[in-house]
Amino acid sequence: MKRDYSLLGEDARRAVQSGLAAAEWYHSDVPRKEMKAFMAREDQPAIRDTIILFGAMATLAALGVALWPSLWSAPFWLAYGVLYGSAMDSRWHECGHGTAFRTAWMNNAVYQIASFCMVRNPVTWRWSHARHHTDTIIVGRDPEIVAMRPPALFRIVLNLFGILDAWNGWARMLLNASGRLDPEEASFIPESEHPKVIRVARIWVAIYAATLAVAVWTGSILPLMLIGLPRLYGAWHHVLTGVLQHAGLADNVVDHRLNSRTVHMNPISRFIYWNMNYHVEHHMFPMVPYHRLPALHDRIKDDLPAPNPSMWHAYREVLPVLRRQLAHEDYFLRRELPATARPYREDFHAAAAGNAA
CB of 84 within 8 A of CB of 57? Predict the structure, then answer.
C-alpha cells in the first residue's frame, strides 16, 4: 500500500483511529530503583564534552582563518564543519531532551546554539521531536522520518551535503520570520508557542543578514565559512549516523526493538554523535542521559536484538533492504530477539510479519 507521510493526510487519520497514535510502547523491565539511578542527571560529563567541542571548534576556525585562502586551510575547515554541521545535531537532540546537563540553563544555552547551527527552530523542533518520540515511525504522525517508503535515496545522498534539509530550514526560517507557520508544523505546535517561533526566526534572519553584509563588505566568503556554510559541508556525519537509526525497519509498530537500531561505533563518532548509536535504548528510555546509555545497554541487552558491530556492518544490512523497498515498500527487516527477550506484542505486529525480511 502507498504511504501518506503528511501529518494532515489519510494515514494520520488511520493512525488515530487504529490506536497507533500516542500508543502504549513496550519497555524492557528495569526495576524502578535502577531506572532512577540511570536517569540521574549531572553536569560534569556534558561540561567536559562541551568545552572539548567548542574549544576544538575555536581552534580549528582560528587555523582556518589564519591559513585562508590557502588550500592548507581546507582540512581545518572540513573538521570545523563536522563539529558545526554534525556534532551540533546530537547536542541539539540531547539538550532538547533536557538530559545532557543537570542545570537547566546549560541545557537551554547549548540547545539554542545547536539549533541555530542546524537551522532548526528551537521552538518548532522541541515539539516536533516530542511527536517523534510519542509516535516513532508511525506513518502520518512522525514528522522526523528520514527513510520513507519507498526510500528517496537521492534525497538522502543530497543531504550528505546539507543540500535539502539546510535549504528547507532556511526557507522555513524566512516563512516564520514573515509571521507565518507551515500548516504541518502548526498541527503539532500549540498556538501559544507560535509567537516564539516567529521571534526566533527573526533573530536568526538578523544574524544571517549581518554575516552576509560582512562577507559583501570584505569581498570574501570567509564569514560564511564560519556561519552558514558549515551546515552544508559538515552535514555528512550526522546523516550517515542518522540514517541508521530507523531505516529499513518496521513502521507502524509500538515496540522500539522493531523500529530502532543500536550500532557500535568508534570513539570519535560516539563523541560527535553523543552516544545516540544506542538508539533502541534511547527511544525506550528517552530520559536517560547520553553518558549513561552504554551502561543501560549492558543492563537490558538480553532483551534487545543484537547490535550491529559497526557502521559498515549496519549499512551492509540496510542498503539491500532500501533497494528492495524501491519496488516493494511493504518490505522491511524484522529484528531477531535473543531467547532471553520478552516476545513482541504480536497483537500489534502479526499483520506486518508477513512482509518481514
Answer: yes
Alpha-carbon gap, residue 3 to 9, rounded angstroms: 10
* 300, HSE (Cβ side, Cα atoms, 13 Å): 26
CB-based contacts of 135, cutoff 8 Å, min separation 6: 15, 20, 21, 22, 23, 141, 142
Cβ–Cβ < 8 Å for 38, 295:
yes
Strands (E), 6-48: none
3-state secondary structure 235-273: CHHHHHHHHCCCCCCCCCCCCHHHHCCEECCCHHHHHHH
Whether residue 173 contacts residue 205, with contact meaning beta carbons closer than 8 Å, is answered with yes
Contact predicate 265/315, CB 8 Å? no
Q: What are phi and psi of 232, to 5 degrees?
A: -90, -55
All cell numbers assigned to 92 = 541539539
Contact between 139 and 252 (Cβ < 8 Å): yes
CA dist 129 → 42, 97, 109, 137 (Å): 23, 9, 18, 12
Q: Is the whole model's pTM more than 0.90, yes or no?
A: yes
Within 10 A of 298 (CB to CB), how many other CB atoms are there? 10
Query: How would you classify residue 274: left for phi > 0, otherwise alpha for psi between -120 and 50, otherwise beta?
Result: left
Q: Cell numbers at residue 54, please? A: 567548542
User: Environment class of residue 128 by beta-carbon count within 10 Å: exposed (0-12), middle (13-18) or buried (19+)?
Assistant: buried
Q: How crowded is residue 74: how many other Cβ atoms within 10 Å of its Cβ? A: 12
* Cβ contact 234:304 at 8 Å: no
* Non-local CB neighbours of 109 within 8 Å, separated by 6+ positions: none
Q: What is the pLDDT of residues 145-189, one digit of tens each?
A: 999 999 999 999 999 999 999 999 999 999 999 999 999 999 899
Task: Give the integer Cα–Cα distance in Å for 161 and 79.
Answer: 14
State whether residue 131 is helix, strand or coil: helix
Q: How many other C-beta atoms can be found within 10 angstroms of the C-beta atom of residue 347? A: 7
pLDDT digits (tens, 9 = 90+) for 291-300: 999 999 999 9
Q: For 192, phi and psi rounded to 5 degrees?
A: -65, -20
Per the CB < 8 A criterion, the answer to whether 170 and 119 are in contact is: yes
